[in-house]
Predict the 3D structure of the following.
Amino acid sequence: MASGYGKGMSNPDDHAGDERVPERSRSLAVRRSSDSTGMDRIEFFSDAVFAIAMTLLVVTLVVPLTVSENELGHALRTGPLSDQLFAFALSFVVIGQFWIAHHRLFRLIRSYDLGLLWLNLFHLLGICFLPFPTELLGRYFGSPLAGYLYGGTLTATSFFGASVWFYARRRQLTGRLEHDVERATTLRAITTPIAFAVGTLFVPISMWVAVAIWALLLPITRATVTAAARAKAKATET
């Protein structure tokens, strides 16, 4: 092992066939490798945060002490528990979509530096915080303040998730990508924060419209972007 490369860090000379990390970022960037301190560690840590955040959502489900046994069915159908269950399901799906996007993104990133780590941490900060506005949304479903806090958290979280992608591309931390993959990922990174922001703008008008946008517009937008990028790539090839 060459000097300057301790245990857990791969030597660039050992990856002569790989695409090199730019000279200006080599001091901080570490190439993906099989060691536990490389990219795998970032993904394992991120996955743990997502899993814990999704698990903590169930803590927001609280049965009021004032609900008697005879009133339980009504509370589950149209009472306060129904709003809590709906907010729980919404947040579980949203965090699941964030995890899928994060998983796809880090399959494209081959190395990292300090800036990427911080952006990823800010993204995970939003994921960790989401159970709190979820509880507020479940308790005060018609409150604009609860809606703004929930939508603002989704928008900020998706913004930092998109920043991870744009930072990685600017610092050349990704490998060589096919054009349709790069185009689709870029368009998804742009449209996701916009979708959440648009939903948040509808909070004072109708909370149900805002929720529908948060729940439906994002997957529809992602599917449309992916299809458009693939069609564009095929048209370019022909």
Remarks:
- Residues 207-237 form the longest helix (31 residues).
- Strands lie at 30-31, 111-112.
